[in-house]
């Protein structure tokens, strides 16, 4: 059975949504990706949607929506995006904080940079899970 990875931040509209999409794309064979937050947004950040569509040809408007922590299954691994405030708490076997700056309100280059960092971190996480490098998790 694949581990469930929850990408969380307060608003669940930008970084965590990008991570969910890229997790499904680059690590779907290794783990199941979910994203959630403590506050709902009426829609995902449309700059994030546009950049993910441009770079990866994935339309997050069609496949994802803003979700609260209780809307997703129990997570084995929790990835905090880097809230700079109090990040939401979600129980798990393993937790990391990726410390990503929020590109919201910034130019496309910042969104592209954030997407590329998330892509690399998702691939690295998948590799560590495959190689059993995350000690708390045994699947």
From TrEMBL:
Its EC number is 1.20.4.1, 3.1.3.48. GO terms for biological process: response to arsenic-containing substance. Keywords: Arsenical resistance, Hydrolase, Oxidoreductase. Residues 3-128 form the Phosphotyrosine protein phosphatase I domain. Pfam families: LMWPc. It comes from the Bacteria. The gene is arsC. The keyword Hydrolase applies. The keyword Nucleus does not apply. GO terms for molecular function: arsenate reductase (glutaredoxin) activity; protein tyrosine phosphatase activity. This is Glutaredoxin arsenate reductase. PANTHER family: ARSENATE REDUCTASE (PTHR43428:SF1).
């Amino acid at each position: 059975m694949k581990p469930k990875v929850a990408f969380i931040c307060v608003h669940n509209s930008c970084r965590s949504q990008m991570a969910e999409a890229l997790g499904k794309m680059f690590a779907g064979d290794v783990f199941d990706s979910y994203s959630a937050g403590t506050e709902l947004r009426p829609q995902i950040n449309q700059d994030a949607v546009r950049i993910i569509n441009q770079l990866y040809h994935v339309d997050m408007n069609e496949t994802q929506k803003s979700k609260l922590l209780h809307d997703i299954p129990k997570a084995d691994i929790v990835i905090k995006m880097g809230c700079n405030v109090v990040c939401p708490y979600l129980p798990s076997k393993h937790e990391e904080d990726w410390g990503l700056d929020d590109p919201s309100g910034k130019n496309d280059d910042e969104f592209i940079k954030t997407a590329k960092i998330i892509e690399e971190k998702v691939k690295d996480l998948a590799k560590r899970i495959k190689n059993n490098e995350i000690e708390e998790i045994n699947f």
